[in-house]
Design a protein that fits this description.
This protein has 172 residues and is an alpha+beta fold. The protein is built from three helices and ten strands. Strands 1, 4, 5, 6, 7, 8, 9 and 10 form an eight-stranded mixed β-sheet that branches. The radius of gyration is 16 Å and the shape is globular.
Length: 172
């Protein structure tokens, strides 16, 4: 298929592969899916996502813009540039919080990413859920994410997000 306008915008800020339309059981899947391999920072440094995230293009574009324009500059204030985003989960055909009978998760449409940690060039690993990580930094990252995503959920929210921060573009 031909690239969509979203794919063309994403190409300026990310390294990705177009995916075929994903069709899963129930209402899982979607069109305009991509495998987001890395985000290109303003200095053209690549920040890989480990593992690569399968997302719909709209979500991939939001993740890439957040990393490039918000998270990387905030993390650079620590004296070392961002080098890797580690995530737990992207596209997966499943119910919310893996509870049988619950509504489908936004992961089931490629509209969600679970962020675990950031790795900096100097070798530091910063978990967003670690209370020992600088609180103003964690608050700035959360605030910037709240401007890009419709849901930002982490520890203390419901017991299902204690080890990561869930970002999504839930349709409201």
């Amino acid at each position: 298929a031909n690239p969509t306008p979203c794919d063309e915008r994403l190409a300026a800020i990310a390294v990705f592969t177009l995916m075929p339309r994903l069709i899963g059981p129930e209402a899982c899947g979607g069109g305009d899916m991509v495998r987001l391999d890395a985000v290109l920072l303003s200095d053209n440094a690549r920040v890989p996502l480990q593992p690569a995230a399968v997302l719909n293009c709209r979500m991939a574009e939001s993740v890439a813009a957040w990393l490039r324009d918000d998270a990387a500059p905030e993390l650079a204030k620590l004296g070392s540039p961002l080098r890797v985003l580690e995530n737990y989960d992207s596209y997966e055909c499943r119910s919310r919080n893996r509870i049988a009978g619950a509504k489908l998760s936004d992961h089931a449409h490629g509209d969600a990413l679970d962020v675990r940690s950031f790795y900096l060039a100097d070798g530091r690993r910063l978990e967003l859920t670690d209370a020992s990580v600088d609180k103003p930094l964690r608050e700035a990252l959360r605030e910037s994410a709240c401007h890009r995503f419709t849901t930002v959920t982490g520890p203390g929210s419901d017991g299902h997000h204690e080890g990561h921060v869930h970002l999504d573009l839930i349709r409201r």
